[in-house]
Amino acid sequence: MAFDARVLILAAQDGRLGPLVAGLDALGWTTVTARDLTSAEAVLQDFPLDAAVVDFDSLTDDVVARLRSAAEPRSLPIMVVGAPRGSVMDADLAVTLPPHPAQAALRLEQMTRAAIAEEEFHLRRATFAARGIDLEAGGDERAPLRVLAAGVAERRFLALSNALTASGVEVVAAPTPYTAFDYLHESPFDAAVLWGAKDHAPALSIASGMKRNTRLYHIPLMLYLRDGNEIGLDELFNRGFADVATADTPEDETAERLLALAGSHRRHLTIRKALDSVRALAEMDASTGLFTPELFAAHLARVADASRARRRPLSVCVLRVKENEAVAGARQGGWLDRAMPQIGAMVSRLVRVEDTPARLAKEVFALALPATRGEAARLAAERIAAVIGCTAFDAGPDRSPFVAEFDVGAAEMQPNESAAALLERASADLFDKTR
């Protein structure tokens, strides 16, 4: 049977983490447990795990550093459970009580994707540096974090706001959903915390509205519960909350968790802004702002080498405009060419920050998706194609707008396979699917 664990558990005993481990296993975040640091290091050296969860009772001064060293060159997000406030400074997340399994899985996913995006940013910098271009993550990161605090000004909510302010956060208070959305549409925020109060309806209304808005969708949401057992945590995480602070969580710890969410979101936006900043450069495709074939080939080779070294999967997708009568007519009138800048912009915005989009030919696009299995990559490309396929493009006077649909091919990198061979297999898969 294949070893498919994703999370290392470092715990001498099962008492504190046992239920969390069982819950993570049930959610697909398969775990492997090490009872001591030496065993944990051996597991990380032998298997490409995504993250680690450490019982505070097993934590010593050098545990975090040694775990990260054992995982190199992969980044290893680390969560410490059972840590008194302020006792752990070098982990990605420290909590006093074991989180709900759904909550832990969500935070592990966020931390893992953030680590992969950071890896890709450094690879992208190297690719552009080879062409004399300095790609820097710039100034927005140095500005104070901004958090929207939505809800009635009760004692504990005010205490949380004060704790955030003491940490240098700019807190904007919104007593009602209406004022909350006014603020959200006026200026950017790094996170939002919603007060449960006696009635969850205002908080759930804000969360629902944000998740229906493409610009606000990615802002991390925390719900601060007023009382215990007011609403099922599974339901809350399904509604899009990134974190839920229960009634017995100290305000200072809630503030630290919210700061971690806000900081990660700010970094994510900073990286995306830096990567998007190159779209107007001469090295990019002039029409779409995507990677040219030559630049994509050079970067894909770099990503492939890094994926092998980190023992992460890598997949490539190829998308080609599907031939039909409407597309043929739009092509003859030059309207398909006129639509390409918009299509390129859509491809660029629909991929994750760590994915690399390219234009290989006039009507052919490619995606490099690090840390992604083949079938997941195909699904991602098909979703992108479906979104673009819902957009009507101008076909000229007296003609109905046309829709651009795509054929999709995908391939996952095999052992010792070159980047060029991987791209060739993805292209071959596209042609096989359209015969």
UniProtKB/TrEMBL annotation:
Q: What is this protein called?
A: GGDEF domain-containing protein
Residues annotated as transmembrane: none
- Tell me where in this chain the GGDEF domain is found: 312-435
Q: Which Gene3D superfamilies match?
A: 3.30.70.270
Species of origin: Brevundimonas mediterranea
Kindly give the PROSITE patterns that the UniProt entry links to this protein: GGDEF
List, alphabetically, the InterPro entries matched.
GGDEF_dom, Nucleotide_cyclase, Rev_trsase/Diguanyl_cyclase
